[in-house]
Design a protein that fits this description.
23% of the residues lie in helices and 24% in strands. It is α+β, with helices and mostly antiparallel strands and 195 residues long.
Length: 195
């Protein structure tokens, strides 16, 4: 992320914005913009990164990766195969400060719901970082295969250590069945908010 500051400046200049104009759009001071661009502040929360992407009218992935290594997010569909199974997709490393509350050290892939696809916990245009894994390491949102269909479920452990699954908006805890298979942990989630 050492290149994030210069990238913010480059994108700001491309957008023909001065620091004060960008600061107003993001909801911070122009001094903060200066600190971000110079690298004096290295930790930028994911809400601010989303706001920066909106203000600069660019995809969030462009802020997160070098221009030369830019990889668009993969489209997530409810039917197999997984979008990264062709082996040609590049992984990204997310700094700890971008995924607060996560204890995950694996590489991730940027994914967004494919047009027309519906997933619990995700809206159209959301960007998520998924760490492919079939291992449960901590409670949270996971991409799972449920009897051949890909879904997102909140996964935690029950009182006796068994895995339990929860749908969005439901209090019902679904017990583990052989039809469930963990595919990956959602370690980052960004949603575009209207300005």
């Amino acid at each position: 992320m050492d290149t994030l500051g210069p990238r913010i400046k480059e994108l700001r200049l491309e957008a023909k914005l001065n620091k004060a104009a960008l600061a107003r759009r993001v909801g911070v001071s122009d001094v903060t913009i200066s600190y971000w661009e110079s690298g004096a502040i290295k930790q930028i929360g994911h809400e601010r990164l989303v706001a920066l992407a909106q203000a600069l009218n660019c995809p969030l992935s462009r802020l997160l990766e070098d221009e030369g290594s830019h990889a668009p997010p993969l489209y997530l569909r409810s039917q197999l195969p997984l979008p990264w199974e062709d082996g040609k997709q590049r992984v990204i490393e997310l700094p700890v400060e971008m995924v607060p509350g996560q204890n995950w050290d694996a590489a991730c892939l940027l994914v967004t719901p494919a047009p027309g696809e519906q997933f619990d916990f995700l809206a159209e245009g959301d960007l998520v970082a998924i760490a492919p894994s079939d291992i449960f390491r901590q409670p949270g949102l996971y991409l799972i295969e449920d009897d051949g269909v890909l879904t997102i479920r909140r996964v935690s452990q029950g009182a006796t250590g068994e895995l339990v699954f929860q749908r969005e908006g439901s209090e019902e805890l679904l017990p583990y069945t052989p039809a469930f298979r963990l595919i990956g942990k959602l370690v980052g989630h960004w949603r575009v908010q209207p300005l």
